[in-house]
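User: My collaborator sent over this chain with a note saying "see what the structure looks like." That's all I know about it. Can you take a look?
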Amino acid sequence: MVETALRSLPLSGAHGGSAVVSLSPAAPATRISLRVRAEDVAALSSGLGLDLPTTAKTSTSGNGLTALWLGPDEWLLIGEGESDLMRTLGGSSVLHSATDISHRNTAILISGPGAALTLNGGCPLDLSLRAFPVGACARTLFGKIEVVVFRSAEDAFRMECWRSFSDYAFGLLHEAAEDAAL
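Assistant: Without extra context I'll predict from the sequence alone. Here is the result:
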């Protein structure tokens, strides 16, 4: 019998924002840090049932899975709920590296007309729709921490961060949300 650690949720009960933005913790998800050579992307994509994006700042979604391009050979896979992505990837004959980071990361959802302005309270990226359209993603800084930002809708973002920094990230977002409402 295999026993796994139960995940305690960071930011449980945390909600915030302002009149123009809503902040909330994302539901638990499976997160995989994936590395694979360019020549093996197509074969691994086939095994996942989802084409891994191969262009900077892009993502693909389908079948309860989102793949975010982080570098020429690196992706963040986010599976809704408690999916078994490691088993799926383990069944592949393609040479790759897959590390389950589900317990390390958490995410904060930022939505509303002030979402981009709120994120820009701590993030240097140009988050305008022209520069950062729906589906865009990037690894960047938010305040003093490394995050992955994903634009899920015109006025909605998902910010992935290490759970140990989640209180800091949420607090900074809450302050920026209040400023965005001014």
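A starting point for your reply to your collaborator: The radius of gyration is 17 Å.
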